[in-house]
Specification:
Layout (H helix, E strand, L loop, with lengths): L2 E7 H6 L13 H18 L3 E5 L12 E2 L5 E4 L6 H12 L4 E5 L3 H9 L3 E3 L1 H28 L6
Parallel strand pairs: 1-2, 1-5, 2-4, 5-6
Antiparallel strand pairs: 3-4
Length: 157
């Protein structure tokens, strides 16, 4: 059975991806927005739903509530006194009857917990490689499709 959902520990991935939103604080809106944009490309390329969870307990007052753009990546913020890890563990447990889910975090104990709950887990670095491969394949496919489409039209001068 394939992966039915990818759960991303948002701040864990942001802290291990300094090239994403360079010069922006890792807890800033700009860094989160850049991450969601990249995850949306991955979701579109892979066809696997993605949920990104941010620790929201100490978030500034202007931090948005949980949101999901139509057909986009689900964005969740944990409540005060709750961590992204706790949400990931709960979802891993609840998703077990539907198939395997993949947790993305650099927290080793969190990865082990998710695996013990029947899910899969990978490090942020491994996921970044998967993301590059998947999105890169989509971009090559789109370029090839566009090339074939252009050949079907004759230029009229």
């Amino acid at each position: 059975m394939g992966i039915v959902r990818v759960l991303v520990d948002g701040y864990s991935l942001l802290h291990h991806w300094p090239e994403l939103a360079p010069g922006q604080a890792r807890h800033s809106f700009h860094a989160r927005d850049a991450l969601v944009a990249v995850l949306t490309q991955y979701q579109d390329s892979s066809g696997t739903p993605v949920t990104v969870i941010f620790d929201g307990g100490g978030a500034p007052p202007d931090t948005p509530k949980n949101e999901t753009a139509k057909g986009g990546v689900e964005v969740l913020f944990s409540k005060k006194g709750q961590t992204a890890d706790q949400i990931i563990e709960r979802v891993a447990h609840l998703m077990k009857p539907y198939g395997e889910m993949l947790a993305v975090t650099n927290d080793y104990s969190e990865r082990e917990t998710v695996i013990s709950l029947g899910g899969s887990a990978c490090s942020c670095e491994n996921f970044m490689e998967m993301l590059d491969d998947t999105v890169g394949d989509m971009q090559v496919g789109v370029a090839e499709h566009n090339k074939r489409e252009r050949k079907g039209y004759k230029r009229v001068d």
